[in-house]
Design brief:
CATH class: Alpha Beta
Distance between the termini: 24 Å
Number of strands: 10
Number of helices: 8
Order of helices and strands: EHEEEHEHEHEHEHEHEH
Structural class: alpha/beta
CATH superfamily: Ureohydrolase domain
Strand content: 15-25%
Helix content: 25-40%
């Protein structure tokens, strides 16, 4: 039997009985500012039992009433991005092969590339719904093409034009913004256009990737690359309600760095609860 704090609260169903399989991906070797996101899943598990309730009054759902398995953390080789991506892709493939839905807790945003590869194999008409402060569309960072700042460019190389919807973006080079305007569906600065986006993609298989730095740092400072001007908690909740109505086939919750502003752990756990319910 798993110890109480070894799973996210309410996510204690067996793999066979679960519909949503949650796993941690403790890796942050390409982080360009403050590191520490590799500890996110471990910290959120522990804090979920002391910081929040399992019931969401916003979405009127309780984690205990959902069929969710927290399968623990993957064993990943620190410093080896390519091998790490292979391991994550394999794990997500196994979840899809079992006709279940993956939810990854990162970890740095590069890891979304592995999950998107697996998702696109199973769902060729895949849509990526990307919440972030940063465009993450650089071709390389200091010569490295595998980076948390290049992940959306790498995903685009797999799924092509018009299938990535980016919301909340407010940081990047001018070249990145010009590139996004040509190749992705870019909605800068806020989440105001999410309902319109949802109306377009509602019946499509959607992978949701959520970088916590999409939030204003006054709400969520616990991330390595905070950017002012982000979403409020109320806007996050409204986004969760909209996501709940989509055909979500997989998701991730990325870039939470628990060592920064540890007293915001309850906020992070609350956000994760709403996110889990929204994508279940």
């Amino acid at each position: 039997m798993k110890k109480l704090d070894s799973v996210i609260m309410g996510c204690d169903k067996s793999f066979d009985k679960a519909d949503l399989i949650l796993f941690g991906a403790p890796f942050d070797s390409t982080t360009s500012n403050k590191a520490g996101t590799k500890y996110a899943s471990r910290y959120l598990r522990m804090e979920s039992h002391s910081s929040i309730e399992s019931y969401s009054p916003y979405l009127d759902e309780d984690l205990h009433n959902l069929n969710i398995c927290d399968s623990g953390d993957l064993e990943l080789p620190y410093g080896n991005a390519e091998k790490t991506l292979e391991i994550i892709e394999g794990a997500v493939n196994e979840i899809f092969d079992a006709n279940k839905k993956p939810l990854m807790i990162g970890g740095e945003h590069l890891l979304t590339l592995a999950a998107a590869k697996a998702a696109q194999k199973k769902y060729p008409d895949l849509i990526i719904l990307h919440f972030d402060a940063h465009a993450d569309c650089a071709n390389d960072i200091l010569g490295e093409k595998l980076s948390h700042g290049t992940v959306i460019k790498r995903i685009w190389e797999i799924i092509g034009d018009g299938k990535i919807y980016q919301l909340g973006i407010r940081s990047g080079t001018k070249e990145e913004f010009l590139w996004c305007e040509k190749h992705t569906n870019l909605y800068k600065f806020n989440l105001n256009m999410l309902k319109s986006v949802a109306d377009k993609i509602k019946d499509c298989p959607v992978y949701v990737t959520f970088d916590v730095d999409v939030m204003d740092p006054s709400i969520m400072p616990s991330t390595g690359t905070p950017e002012g001007g982000g979403a409020t908690y109320k806007e996050f909740i409204e986004a969760a309600k909209i996501i709940k109505g989509l055909n979500v086939i997989g998701a991730d919750f990325m870039e939470y760095c628990p060592q920064i502003a540890e007293n915001f752990s309850a906020v992070a756990c609350g956000m994760l609860r709403e996110f889990i319910i929204a994508v279940s």
